[in-house]
Amino acid sequence: MRFLCLHGMGTNSAIYEAQLSPIRAHLGPEHEFVFVDGILESEPADSVAGIFPPPFVCYYSKPTQDQLEAAYDLVEEVMDEEGPFDGVFGFSQGGALIASILLQRRKTHPTAPDLFRVAVFTCASLPFDLDSNRDNLGRDKYHTVIDPRTGAVSVRDFVAGIDHVEATKFNGYMAAPEPGELPLRRYHPGREPRRIQIPTIHIIGERDPFAPQSSALVGLCEDAVVVTHERGHELSRDRLFAKKAAQAISAAVSRALFRC
Known about the structure:
AB_hydrolase_fold; 11 strands; FSH-like_dom; 6-stranded parallel β-sheet; single chain; 260 residues; 5 helices; LovG
């Protein structure tokens, strides 16, 4: 299989290649991995700058419609120029971007073939909904307030019979929106009826502050398998974990091929 691989915010393709190397060693030489760099410069992720050289990049620095559409265009361009791809790996923001693209496709092309046969989400955060900031009349559907110090986000829905505030957190060093910019809201399985239907593997760190978002992403997938490790927002290099993750990925690949 050929896999498209998208890194996390504040890293780059070389870093993700190093992060995945223990798992890839167990997957066999028949698989090919294509790593794609983000399009915007970013502050380095935690513990990265002292180990890996810059540049450090991301696919979007803030969750606005323009930036997410540009990230979509990047993935589409890579798929057109270097595809086809059978599967996809995504770490953190890279995983959120892939999930967003897959869910958007289910909305706009519900009967079309899936873009990939299998997806592997590593420490992924919840995806953003490209259509979430306006209703059919062009009015704001919700109001978002971002704490510039902590990055905490409060979202108030404007939906008949619903008036609640949900606490969430933007991933990594997400830039605050400028005046007049309306951030997209994240998908959540509690309010999104669509599901990613291809086999998915979800690698989650038990001490990852984004583990709740990774777990919620599981609920947005129809055929999901979870693999955990004891560390944080990273891929453990433990041999037993790498072997377990590779076995789960290989099983997902087999299920995907069986569907054809």
